[in-house]
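Box 3.1 A note on notation
Throughout this textbook, protein chains are presented in two layers. The first layer is the amino acid sequence; the second is a token string describing backbone geometry. Keep the layers aligned when reading.
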Amino acid sequence: MLTMSPVTLDTADAIATPILQSIKDRYGMVPNFFGALGIDGAAMRGYLAFEESLEDACHLSTREREFIALAVANANGCHYCVSGHTFSARRAGMSAEDCAAAQRGEAEDASEQAVLTLALRAMETRGNLEPRDFEAAGAAGIPQEKLIQICAWVALNTFSNWINNIVQPKIDFPKVPLQGPCEAAGR
């Protein structure tokens, strides 16, 4: 039977080892997600390159990215990512209530709600958005390049959720429970 175990600096392949070392140098540790992703160095390198490219020319605020990450993680049932993104969202100034609401697909701010709703609709429809979704995006002032980045962040977060759901690394952040189903997509 195939078993999945996160790699360490001692067990990672030649591509993942220097990446894991740089993560350890930056954070003082290697979060277990990176050990899980590092099972395949090429996948790790691609994931980090995609993330870096999006961050270098980002059309989304940190809050919007965390709202997307929390909603997508909750929808994908990724306990690791809900916990990790709650930790990073709290460090970015979001309240515990904002984080829990994001998991449910809810935001108090109308523009953040529009981003969240669009992200969940893209996920729910596998990118097959309907005219009403484009109308809602336009009414919320979301330009086409931001819509593409919303989809890119959904994809990036879904990939990390799947890795964590497959490998099941130990959660190395304060554990946060999954919330009820996201309801924003149906709005």
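The longest helix spans residues 144-167. The chain has a mean pLDDT of 93.
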